[in-house]
Amino acid sequence: METLGQCRRILCAMSMFLCVCPFLVASNPVTVLSDYAHRAWPLREISLKTNVATITQTADGYLWFGTSFGMVRFDGVQMVSWSPPAGQQLPNPAAWAVLAARDGSLWIGTAGGLANWKNGRLTEYPALSGQRVVALLEDQEGTVWAGTIGSHTGRLCAIRGAIATCYGDDGSLGDWVISLYEDKGGRLWVGTTSGVWRWKPGPPVRYLREPITAPHVFAEAESGDGVTLAAGKLCQISGEHVTDYPLPGVSSPMSSSRLLRDRKGALWIGTQGHGIVHVFRDKVSLFTHSDGLSGDTVSTLFEDREGNIWVATTDGIDRFRESPVGSVSVKDGLSSATATSVLAGRDGSLWIGTVDGLNRWRDGHMTVYRNPADSQVGSIFEDKSGLVWVSGARSLSVLEDGRLKSAPFSLQGRASAIAGDAQGGLWLTSPDYGLVHVAGGKVIERMSFPQPGEAASGLIPEPDGGVWVGLFNGGVIHFRNGQIRRKFSTNDGLGSGKVANIYRGRDGAIWASTENGLSRIADGRVVTMSTKNGLPCNTVHWVIEDDLSSYWLYTQCGLVGITRREMDAWAADNARKIQTLIFDNSDGVRLLAMTRPERPHVTKSSDGKIWFAHWGTGTVNTFDPARVNRNAIPPPVHIEQIVADDKIYFAKRGVHVHPLVRNLTIDYTALSFVEPGKVHFRYKLEGQDPDWREVINDREVQYSNLAPANYRFRVIASNNDGVWNQEGDALDFTIDPAPYQTAWFRALAVGAVVGILVVMYRYRLYQLDREYNVRVEERTRIARDLHDTLLQTFQGLMLRFQVVDDLLPPGKAKEELEATLECGDQAVTEARDAVRDLRSYAAIGNDLSQALREAANELTRETTARFRLLVEGEARDLEPMVRDEIYRIAREALRNAAAHSGANLIEVEIIYKERLLLRIRDHGIGISPEFLKDGRGGHYGLAGMRERAEAIGAELLIRGGKGVGTEIELSVPAHVAYARQQRRPGWWPVLGTRG
Q1: Shared-domain flag, residues 853 and 984
Q2: Residue 163 CB contacts under 8 Å (≥ 6 apart), including other chains
Q3: Which of 94, 346, 521, 957 has CB atoms 3.0–4.6 Å from 68's, for a disulfide?
């Protein structure tokens, strides 16, 4: 039942994957090497000091290269020399054999012994110390086998746990045990200088006595029973028999020294000096340095878990991977490196137009036809009768009886497009003669293009005799019965710029490929698909449907696939985002602009393949939609290191980064080798990045001036086909604080600042008290001096004037003197009031309301005015100096109201809130507007009130007018008015006030 449940889960996952990946179809393996996507890394362009001797891939996804200068780790983008941590070292730097075991460990065979790298620890095996380990294998039972080269004898050692059991000390294996292989049947094959041995099961049996001097000479037999062997020549060992393995079409002698049978069953043969030989289904193909291989002598072969084939040569490293894109080129017999057009014939032939003749490709053979008078071929068309029409440089030709002949009608000029009507006639276009309809060898219709010299980018005949015409300079025309029935342009929604091609879909819609999107014309309506809908780029050169219900677009950025389901959904909702699949340069698709007028550029053959021509590339690409396979393996993701101000921290749990880091770089990678340049990453530094950031093949991120804290960096990635590893990798690290960034230091600093503020505050209070006492003493002294000197002297003068008045007889002089005495009495009274004001600080105490009540009672004693005092809020102590100034302003206002207003009621309102508000108002005769600002001439009461208010930082407003009374409002900020010890919590002490 458990097995059944597992099967159900697997089937469910497969069905989900098929739904998500509409382009995934049954595998159709590549049969020739020219149809593989290939990339080479020459030694001169990479960081390898010498050629690679051996390759493996560990469970974490990294590729490991063994060289005579040490180990190199590769993530598809960067090659990094590897060495063990400090305190550990390999027996010898030269790594001649590497093995990735199933437990995740890495076995390294060196020129001085064997080591195992696991969980950051390197373990050596004394039984192989000092020996050159050149072959490694893990069998189905988990035993690791090692082959060595000795000074006298080679040894074969079986390692189980920490115990190594070795064979061959008797010399039976010769000097070298250099090649190991286990076939599907569990048979262990050993290649030595004494011959080829089947070591197990059963007692060892020698099959060949020819010496084996190269590693990796075994591969699985095609039948699955036995092995294929490269021992100078190819052999097949099946059962007890050894037979030759023929390679038809490969010249002899060819030294075969490396073998690999890939998962699809193809045999890869590495040679000494002749490159790579590929054998699959009786098709043999070669790939050498002249084809782009890094070198012609192969040192090792390896297949990674994604199906990429790695070839190490003496001059570099090469990668081959299956691609649905193939090619036909001059190497295949094409008459010219400049292909102009391509057309699939009804008989299975492929017609290719070039600047040097018409080429017919069929069953792997090329035939070339030339018109002696005009060998250049432009557009091609095959009519219903099977005749092939060819546009030359100056005229039209037809292929009959294996010869190109001039057309039976004369049209001077090169046809840019040719199509047939329903009755067997032809439609032709040319910048020279416009659009013409030919039937029975005669021109029956003609139309000039809207612009002189206009070229057509395609023709689509209608069953009713009309034709659709695409125009290079923009627009699509529907022509019928000698008239333009309809013209579509950008004003109708057509993509702007040139129209590179037009195409009729199976549903009858007309598709126009433009510089700014793919336009669909159906039922008189035009809609255009662009990058806003998910196209990778806007410029579209052509579109075609395959036999699997998908559309393929050749665009500026590659060959783009869209399923019919996606296309129909977009046609119903033009704002919809579509899903696409893209092939570009890395897949063998040339990215070139299709600006030539020759047609067709693309065609579909009877086997479902799509063929398209590239002007000037020397190739015609073939694309097989049936061979589109998505890479379903999510890439392993690794965070490799942190670089903080040039100091490297390897990624491990709980990394602590030094304090005061200015620039921090995190290096990460994803291990997908199919097309590393298309790997997408999403990363996030928790606590710093508000959301995920997405980049393409950018494998590091930089941060600046990060604060001391604990951080977690997360990264996920997708492969070239958008399959995401959602788990990804994460790294927790800490940026340590500097001493002054720690909590205890901050607490100490805060305490010190608070202490300083307290000291400054108390010192300021001391200054204010001292200043206040000085001012009080000064005012007391002035009052005393005025009273004891000026006021006493003036009083004495008044007494003497009174004596004189008593002596004068009645008359005018006596009247004037008595008037003068009255003025003097008033002056003495005012002087006494001034002296009293100077001494009033002692009288008012700290209760402002009581002080103002007493002042009002005194000032209104001799008037009929009533006094009313209103207090709002809780009374608070005031700063002494500020209180003194407020009292003087209020007393002056009360004096003015009592003396001049004639009011029946004088009100005083005190409000204790965020500000201290003091309002004094009467309902008397008021103040004339001209006196509100500067006061009455010779009187300084109002001016003095304003000066006092300004001195303490308060606002003084005086309102009123004749007949409406007067209101005086004084507004004092809380931090100025209220005593320090009574301010509300949270207020910072003010260290100074004005005045």
Answers
A1: yes
A2: none
A3: 94
